[in-house]
């Protein structure tokens, strides 16, 4: 066999050397240079492959083990590197180095969905994880939060039940990544403590437009501890600089078909183009006297603290400025641990948090296969660290000497004695007496106020505007309509909702076509709380094109001047202009020039844009009237409450798509301002909501 014959395999005629350029020499994992990476070692050209082929065996062996168990929850995620800068002096509250005004701390952040597997879609109705690892100079602090400030359950003991019920059903292994099925609603309707979280889950909070446009919350009450050891209670908030923005349900459903990676791609591309996402870190600080005066328990993770009662104070900024170099090494192997805490911050007795302190450490061992997972670069502290823990699978450190125990007197003999505890620098657990953390008998009970399951669910519902309330009612109808156990589950759920709001319960019962059931007994009668604007998405959106994408539909005959003016206007408003044409190669414009498209019409439906403009001449419009994808493009933009700008000649396409005039339907001149909003008032024209 000639040399050329061997090396040409698999390169379409290009030689191996040409394809490789000046690359480094390929070796085995043990450093042996490899002569041929195309052909296994055989006994004769057509004979059996030899066991002796260590190159083949090593390559296949390693490949066979490339996958590790995915996270039991939050399996699908996207990560990014960044920096946190402390912008306010809170040394009176916390001694943590990460909060020293002006300090910059490297971070790694991972956003995730909860229920779906690692390969599932990005846009199901689901809670989003918002986990931040701060590599502080006093060790790693992990703030492992969600995009919703409360949780489904109050006690860690219920977590396996929650997760089993929401994940795909045990026998049939579906549905993937969704709560709209029997077992979830069966369980949730039997657990009134879930009601507040269900209100959030059924709102558009679970349909974020982008990770960049959602809030994050630490959920639990934590403590801040100052240099004198004085503790205060704290809740952590992340506020997105781009404002809040969610999609609507029909749009989210269609996004699943248009782009499984919608949010992953959005994050990657924003960072890649230097459009760095930012959040402000806010704290709500309060003391024991405040905690005791509230009608809820601050240790109950199904409750929030209204921002109107304790305003959020901004103390720093998070900027994500670097994409991972390798998804597996970083985003997959990153291990977040709520138990990663630093001096100046402490846990509260929230029973959900206490359970998490165990779970995350434990799960890393089964996911990453070793107790040494902290040595993986993405998990390793960036400050010096060392102790007397030794050995274990995949040990990569090579500690010298005999000091693997403490106390020792090896130093007295001139040997290295190893590190020692530090009374000044070490983490000190705050005295439990500094909080309402009761200690005493061993009891399997919950504190009294945990029994109030409805007051804050009511607070949330009543803080929404009319459109948001309609979305919540319709989501309950949608989800419960997917439940096969129709006789028992929906009535039970609606019976719970009667404790939240009678009108909501009626709307859901009507939407399902069932009689209004009896109100379920409440373990504790709800109280009315003052509505809070901070709980509404619509009251916290920003009129801006920043971070948003505008789809501009063009075709043969479109006017070059109109296109250029529009692109310039969108870009000067900091938006992203994306040209869509029937052929990706481009459109032949009225001046004879060819304009290349960024996306082909069939693969770029309007749901991937925040607003659309239709820039057509008469000829192009006539052709597109016969294109289902073009009519659908406009129809969906209208149905998804987006601004639509159109050139005069494009009007027939708008008419065919059923577009009716409103503030969001403009000519090209008024489009950029219109595109900064969504048109929720339009919704009754396009769909009936519960
Ligand atoms: Fe988690 N959760 N969780 N969780 N969680 C995990 O840890 C768990 C809870 C959250 O991007 C797991 O490393 C228990 C609340 C995020 O890697 C696991 C309880 C909040 C992530 C686990 C909770 C979260 C996880 C799976 C109830 C919001 C993804 C893999 C006591 C404050 C982190 C892993 C990432 C992941 C357990 C409740 C957020 C199994 C037992 C409340 C963002 O350890």
TrEMBL record:
Pfam families per record: Catalase, Catalase-rel, Catalase_C
Region (Disordered): 1-22, 384-423
Catalytic activity: 2 H2O2 = O2 + 2 H2O
Extent of Basic and acidic residues compositional bias: 413-423
Top-level division of the source organism's lineage: Bacteria
Keywords: Heme, Hydrogen peroxide, Iron, Metal-binding, Oxidoreductase, Peroxidase
Coiled coil: none
Role played: Decomposes hydrogen peroxide into water and oxygen; serves to protect cells from the toxic effects of hydrogen peroxide.
Name listed for the protein in its UniProt record: Catalase
């Amino acid at each position: 066999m000639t040399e050329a014959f061997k090396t040409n395999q698999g390169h379409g005629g290009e030689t191996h050397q040409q394809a490789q350029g000046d690359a480094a020499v390929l070796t085995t994992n043990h450093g042996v240079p490899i002569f041929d990476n195309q052909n296994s070692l055989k006994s004769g050209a057509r004979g059996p492959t030899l066991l002796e082929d260590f190159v083949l065996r090593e390559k296949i062996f390693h490949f066979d083990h490339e996958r590790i168990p995915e996270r039991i929850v939050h399996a699908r995620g996207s990560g990014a590197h960044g920096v946190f800068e402390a912008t306010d002096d809170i040394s009176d509250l916390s001694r943590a180095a990460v909060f020293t005004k002006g300090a910059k701390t490297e971070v790694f952040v991972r956003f995730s969905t909860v229920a779906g597997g690692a390969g599932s879609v990005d846009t199901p109705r689901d809670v989003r994880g918002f986990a931040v690892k701060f590599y502080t100079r006093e060790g790693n602090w992990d703030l492992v939060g969600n995009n919703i400030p409360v949780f489904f359950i109050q006690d860690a003991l219920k977590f396996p039940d929650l997760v089993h019920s929401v994940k795909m059903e045990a026998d049939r292994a579906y549905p993937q990544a969704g709560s709209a099925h029997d077992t979830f609603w069966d369980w949730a309707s039997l657990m009134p403590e879930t009601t507040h979280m269900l209100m959030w889950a059924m709102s558009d909070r679970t349909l974020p437009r982008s990770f960049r446009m959602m809030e994050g919350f630490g959920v639990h009450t934590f403590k801040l501890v100052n240099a004198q050891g004085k503790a205060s209670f704290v809740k952590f908030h992340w506020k997105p600089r781009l404002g809040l923005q969610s999609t609507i349900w029909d749009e989210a459903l269609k996004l699943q078909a248009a782009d499984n990676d919608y949010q992953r791609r959005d994050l990657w591309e924003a960072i890649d183009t230097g459009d760095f996402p930012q959040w402000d870190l806010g704290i709500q600080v309060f003391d024991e006297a405040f905690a005791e005066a509230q009608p809820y328990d601050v240790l109950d993770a199904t409750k929030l603290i209204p921002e109107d009662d304790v305003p959020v104070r901004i103390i720093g900024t998070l900027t994500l400025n670097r994409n991972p170099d390798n998804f597996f090494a970083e985003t997959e192997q990153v291990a977040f641990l709520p138990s990663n805490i630093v001096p100046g911050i402490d846990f509260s007795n929230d029973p959900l948090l206490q359970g998490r302190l165990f779970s995350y450490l434990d799960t890393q061992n089964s996911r990453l296969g070793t107790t040494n997972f902290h040595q993986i670069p993405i998990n390793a502290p960036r400050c010096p660290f060392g102790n007397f823990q030794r050995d274990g699978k995949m040990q990569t450190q090579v500690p010298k000497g005999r000091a693997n125990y403490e106390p020792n007197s090896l130093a007295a003999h001139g040997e290295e004695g190893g590190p020692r505890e530090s009374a000044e620098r070490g983490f000190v657990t705050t005295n439990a007496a500094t909080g309402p953390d009761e200690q005493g008998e061993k009891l399997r009970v919950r504190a009294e106020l945990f029994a109030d399951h409805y007051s804050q669910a009511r607070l949330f519902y009543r803080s929404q505007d009319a459109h948001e309330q309609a979305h919540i009612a319709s989501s309950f109808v949608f989800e419960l309509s997917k439940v096969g156990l129709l006789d028992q589950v929906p009535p039970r759920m609606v019976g719970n909702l009667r404790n939240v709001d009678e009108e909501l319960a009626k709307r859901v019962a009507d939407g399902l076509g069932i009689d209004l059931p009896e109100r379920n007994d409440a373990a504790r009668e709800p109280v009315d709380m003052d509505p809070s604007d901070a709980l509404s998405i619509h009251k916290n959106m920003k009129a801006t094109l920043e971070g948003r994408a505008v789809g501009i539909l063009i075709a043969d005959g479109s006017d070059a001047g109109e296109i250029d003016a529009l692109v310039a206007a969108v870009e000067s408003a900091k938006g992203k202009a994306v040209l869509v044409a029937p052929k990706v190669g481009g459109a032949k414009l009225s001046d004879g020039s060819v304009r290349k498209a960024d996306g082909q019409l069939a693969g770029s439906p309007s749901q991937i844009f925040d607003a659309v403009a239709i820039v057509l001449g008469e000829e192009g419009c006539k052709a597109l009237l016969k294109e289902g994808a073009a009519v659908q493009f406009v129809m969906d933009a209208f149905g998804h409450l987006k601004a639509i700008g159109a050139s005069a000649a494009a009007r027939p396409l708008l008419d065919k798509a059923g577009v009716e005039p409103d503030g969001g339907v403009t000519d090209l001149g008024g489009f950029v301002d219109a595109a900064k909003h969504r048109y929720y008032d339009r919704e009754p024209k396009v769909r009936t909501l519960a």
